[in-house]
Write a structure and sequence with these properties.
Length: about 300
């Protein structure tokens, strides 16, 4: 649904062709729930997890936001252990009321926001650079590198997102983003299918430029608590950045004025909701929030942006 072009979409800026290739996208009509088969994880898969995890330890200690680092330590993720959802999920439930819902792959926005509105975070059990991922796409060519695959994977979901779910304020915010998604879809304001699709894209833009690829001004209290000092004037809270070494280093270059490719822009929510993006490349822009509290306030104070009436 969200891929369909609506007559309002010319209002967006930064419109890019967004090819997801042959990725299987699950909807409400599919059998999308799975059980994690923890015992089936191979040594090779664990090696990929460990390699990706370790490469990010120092950069994330230095550059990620404290919400992330605090969540990481209370959740108890390590390089040596493959994430076990049945152990992690109760910790998240106790902290924020969220739980992990293992799913078969990429969910369409309808399903994604619906689950989020119920404090269920969809997680996948497959990792990039693995035989299982290659088998899933036998006969198809999809990107599958340490840095990127369009197929959702356990590394992004757990290393990138899960620590934030240990934070109650963030959990409440994320559930409310899901509820807005659900409200758009239910179309209680009778805006019609075109505006529903358009407004969903607005919410998707907001999600992309905030909790997926957002950065924040350096917070005064963060540096005292870090094991490595942060030599940029920003910190990172977007999970899409935090789960990719190259993207983290691109943000650092950008923050230090050494990037010709990407730019930092103030988080103007009116601009953010109208800005499309590319799933598959290093981002050419990042919107900078003042603080998490400011982001939450921007979201709650500007709900009408997600119910554009044409
Ligand atoms: Fe994500």
């Amino acid at each position: 649904m969200i891929d369909s072009y609506t007559k309002y979409d010319h209002l967006f800026n930064h419109v890019l062709p967004n090819a997801m290739g042959d990725i299987k996208i699950f909807s409400n009509e599919d059998d999308y729930l799975i059980e994690q088969n923890y015992d089936a994880v191979t040594g090779k898969e664990l090696i990929v997890w460990k390699r990706l995890f370790e490469k990010l330890v120092e950069p994330l200690n230095r550059y990620s936001s404290m919400q992330y680092l605090d969540g990481l330590s209370t959740l108890g993720l390590t390089a040596n252990e493959w994430p076990n959802f049945s152990e992690l999920s109760p910790r998240i439930r106790d902290a924020s009321g969220w739980e992990m819902t293992p799913v078969a792959g990429f969910l369409d926005e309808i399903l994604f926001f619906e689950l989020n509105s119920q404090r269920k975070f969809p997680v996948t059990d497959i990792i990039r650079q693995s035989e299982r991922l290659e088998e899933k796409y036998t006969g198809h060519s999809i990107a599958n590198t340490d840095e990127y695959t369009p197929e959702p994977d356990i590394f992004h979901d757990i290393r990138g997102h899960a620590p934030f779910l240990m934070n109650k304020a963030f959990g409440d915010f994320l559930a409310d983003v899901g509820k807005v998604g659900h409200e758009i879809l239910m179309d209680e304001r009778s805006l019609g299918a075109e505006l529903v699709a358009h407004n969903l894209k607005r919410l998707q833009n907001f999600a992309w430029w905030s909790y997926e690829f957002g950065i924040m001004k350096k917070q005064a209290e963060s540096d005292d608590r870090r094991s490595c000092s942060n030599d940029m004037e920003h910190e990172i809270y977007g999970s899409g950045i935090l789960s990719g070494y190259d993207e983290v280093m691109n943000v650092v270059a950008c923050s230090q004025g050494e990037s010709d490719f990407s730019q930092l822009l103030p988080f103007d929510i009116q601009q953010v909701v109208m800005t499309r993006f590319d799933f598959s490349e290093i981002q050419d822009r990042y919107f900078v929030i003042d603080s998490m509290e400011r982001l939450y306030a921007d979201f709650y104070d500007n709900q009408e942006l997600f119910f554009f009436e044409g």
